[in-house]
Amino acid sequence: MAFTYKMVQIPPTILVKGSIQQGTEAAEYLESVVNQHAAEGWEFFRIDSVGVQTQPGCLASLFGHGPAEVTYYVITFRMAS
Questions:
Q1: What is the domain extent for residue 2?
Q2: Does the first or last residue of the chain, that is N or C, have fewer Cβ atoms within 10 Å of its Cβ?
Q3: How much is the pLDDT for 2?
C-alpha cells in the first residue's frame, strides 16, 4: 500500500498561565492538532524531533559566536494513496 505523507511542525514549548495549568496541556494540544488533521482524512503516524544548526555570520564569528542549535518537533500524518 502506498501513502502520501504530511508533516506539521509544532512548537517545542506550549505556553500556559500558571494559574490554569492542569498538567495535561501537551496531550490536549497534540490531540487537537491530530483531530484537526484526522477530520481532513489524515492518519496520525508519529512525532519526530529534528535538530537544525545555523552557522554564525561573519560578524558573529569575529565575536566568537559558535553555531546555534534548535530542536523542532514535527508530527507526521499519512493518507493511503
A1: 1-13+41-81
A2: N
A3: 97
Q: Reduced to 3 DSSP states, what percent helix, strand and coil does the chain have, rounded to the nearest 5?
A: 25, 40, 30
User: What are the strands of the beta sheet with 3-10, ordered from one edge?
Assistant: 3-10, 68-80, 43-54
Tell me how far apart the alpha carbons of residues 78 and 81 are, in angstroms, rounded to a whole number: 9
44 burial type by CB count under 10 A (0-12 exposed, 13-18 middle, 19+ buried): middle
Question: pLDDT (tens digit, 9 = 90+) per residue, 52-68?
Answer: 998 888 887 778 788 88
Conformational region of residue 23, where left means phi above 0, alpha means psi within -120 to 50, and beta covers everything else: left
Residue 33 lies in a domain: no
